[in-house]
Amino acid sequence: MPAKKPGAKRRPFRPRKFVRRAYDLLSTPLALFFLTYSRQVHDGYGMTWPKRMRLGYRFYRNFSKVQTGTNWRAHLVMAMKLLEIPPEVKGAVVECGCWRGGATVNLSLICEITGRELKVYDSFEGLPPPSPGDPIAARTFKNGFMPGMYGGALEEVTGNVRRYGAIDVCSFHKGWFKDTLPHHDGAIVLAFWDVDFYSSLHDCLLNLWPSIVDRGFVFLDEYRDVPYCSVFYSEKYWDKYFSCAPPGLIGIGTGVQVGMYYTDPSAGMGIPRIQGAESIAYCRKGDRSIWEYYPDEFENNPADPPMSAAT
Ligand SMILES: C[S@@+](CC[C@H](N)C(=O)[O-])C[C@H]1O[C@@H](n2cnc3c(N)ncnc32)[C@H](O)[C@@H]1O
Question: Ligand 1 atom 24: the closest Cα is on which residue?
Fold first, then answer.
């Protein structure tokens, strides 16, 4: 044991931090099992149980190596969904918003296993200045944040991926989304957008949604922010830009279940807490999320029989 330096202060005991860490340690083996349990994983990838466990453990380890705004459990959810997509369906994985590359390292590992390219888009200079009318950007900067927040330099990200991930499957695209994303080329089987602002999400949707393959996945980090996620339910938006019904979003509000211990959407906003709110939300291209039951209209349209009468 290293000798204590004379005069060195003892670290204060932080009960909340202790409980969080204890929960994380105790629940990790179970989380690994439940998150990697899936009968929908395609046989073509040869992902046996030991391989799944090893992958999950690497994700867990990388979480402590590279600073990230998202949890390794959320990365594992994405990896398992990618393994459901048959190898014969061509397409890349696209990450928009990588900061220091904490999710990039793990996504690159699953891309290496599945033989897919990982395209990473970011300014590598942090968040952009607020766009007019973007309420999230306005709120963020009102709270004291500056453009440039979450800035990870390209060299730092590539260095992290080289050390902890699979650099050979990656390509990096530096610049503001509005400038880089219109040049995106090729099909996408899975996208991960962790981009904070409305305007950035709109850039991603507008430029990348047409490239998402049928039944492809789009993952989002801002699952807690219901107004932000509501675009995935906006008939007006989807009709205007894509002439289709909105796809909806699984996990809106609380995220998908990754074995965390989270109940309160306001937790983390200045309120002391022990709950860790770290999950993810997603949609699949081809899903339809519109409310189409109008009882009054039905009464005037007896041609549509009620379900019970139709069966
Ligand atoms: C919260 S961080 C991403 C965290 C990362 N996904 C992780 O798991 O650690 C948001 C990222 O989005 C990028 N970003 C947001 N809006 C952007 C835009 N319009 N153009 C380029 N990059 C943008 C920022 O540079 C930043 O790296």
Answer: 126
Q: What is the pLDDT of residues 95-105, one digit of tens each?
A: 999 999 999 99
> What residue segments make up the domains of the chain, in order of their start?
15-265+274-310
The predicted-structure confidence for 253-299, as pLDDT tens digits, reads as follows 889 988 876 666 555 555 556 666 689 999 999 999 999 888 887 66
Give the residue whose CA is nearest to atom 9 of ligand 1.
68
How far is 1 from 290, CA to CA, in rounded Å? 62
Q: Does domain 15-265+274-310 have CATH number 3.40.50.150?
A: yes
Please work out whether the CB of residue 194 comes within 6 Å of at least one atom of ligand 1.
yes
Residues 6+ apart with CB under 8 A from 55: 36, 47, 76, 79, 109, 110, 113
- In 3D space, the residue among 191, 193, 173, 192 whose CA is nearest the CA of residue 183 turns out to be 173
The packing angle between helices 72-82 and 102-114, to 10°, is 20
Q: How far is the CA of 245 from the centre of ligand 1 (A)?
A: 28
